[in-house]
């Protein structure tokens, strides 16, 4: 660390934090016997805590966000320059970086034309849900209000997004939820046997999992279903890359029943899987794409809901109806730091070929994870795409019974003790919190990747022998 803070300052910070901060995702009793971790500084792939301990961050800021790494001076400068000119203006007005980033983003998304700014992934998804509902009222006489979501997918933290949430434990005690959100099955081939479709694999499984969506549409009535919302590669639900043939069939089904396709790229977006967007691996034509985390790598809060001219026109053309526009605002959608940071973030990804690096490093990491699977019986499955990978831990390879959560967390804690931060997905799904998760920044080097997997190797040996 650079010595900006003395040890006295940092002890005070820890005391102030313990006295007043309510942390995300944690039962606070834990801090009666141990201190919270305060991350004080970051540079590249590495961060330092209040004790000066260094960590290789293999999860990009805990929740797959800091795609271009820490300490990027050019992003900081782009933000500072913009803030000196104009920090904020909202309502119906636009901004210079807002217009320029929208233009650059749309160049990466053939078929899409319009960017709606807001400030979190949840909010971006809410915007798309609201548009789907408004289209149902405008075009379909108040029918087609149902929004399908998938078991295991997560779309955010608001009551609306939790209504579309497939991770049941996250929802527990927060109901009642919004009506007309309907669940469809997931597409995790490793647990296909639990879905009652027999022993299918590969394309046969992909087709079956997609057909299950069609069955729900037919059961609900196609004239009541407005949209299907999916993560291209499911994140918190267990790092689930789709089986072959799945997306092609999903697209076919959406087209057949006039169901709008909403792709939640909050995690996959902006390079994480080795393409600009996860859906671009599969030749999908979405109607809505939402994104947040990697858009500005956490240097500023920004989220985008991106759609097509076809959707845009539905809200523009009929001026005889006073309700015929999207009557919505996001106060902090008017912050200019977000698009200014996002423009520079995108330039860095292009100039440093971080998409190429993501594919190369992702392949290397996948190879290393396969070696771990050969060596440790508890590693039941490894999966993912680009630098978005998971290793599912099981009690028994034959039954695929999930490893118990305490021992999975012991592996995570042991890696942290050895200086590498990894994650475990599905923290809040009972019985399923068993997938170690890796999402290092897209700047990772071969040495970084090997350090991550070597540390996991040692941690697995320590916890399981
Ligand atoms: N969608 C997905 C796939 C996510 O993983 C998340 C956050 N983890 C969200 C939406 C919500 O984003 P935010 O926390 O920015 O509201």
UniProtKB/TrEMBL annotation:
<keyword id="KW-0032">Aminotransferase</keyword>
<keyword id="KW-0663">Pyridoxal phosphate</keyword>
<dbReference type="GO" id="GO:0030170">
    <property type="term" value="F:pyridoxal phosphate binding"/>
</dbReference>
<dbReference type="InterPro" id="IPR015424">
    <property type="entry name" value="PyrdxlP-dep_Trfase"/>
</dbReference>
<protein>
    <submittedName>
        <fullName>Taurine--pyruvate aminotransferase</fullName>
        <ecNumber>2.6.1.77</ecNumber>
    </submittedName>
</protein>
<dbReference type="Pfam" id="PF00202">
    <property type="entry name" value="Aminotran_3"/>
</dbReference>
<keyword id="KW-0670">Pyruvate</keyword>
<dbReference type="InterPro" id="IPR049704">
    <property type="entry name" value="Aminotrans_3_PPA_site"/>
</dbReference>
<keyword id="KW-0808">Transferase</keyword>
<dbReference type="InterPro" id="IPR015421">
    <property type="entry name" value="PyrdxlP-dep_Trfase_major"/>
</dbReference>
<dbReference type="InterPro" id="IPR005814">
    <property type="entry name" value="Aminotrans_3"/>
</dbReference>
<comment type="similarity">
    <text>Belongs to the class-III pyridoxal-phosphate-dependent aminotransferase family.</text>
</comment>
<dbReference type="GO" id="GO:0031299">
    <property type="term" value="F:taurine-pyruvate aminotransferase activity"/>
</dbReference>
<dbReference type="InterPro" id="IPR015422">
    <property type="entry name" value="PyrdxlP-dep_Trfase_small"/>
</dbReference>
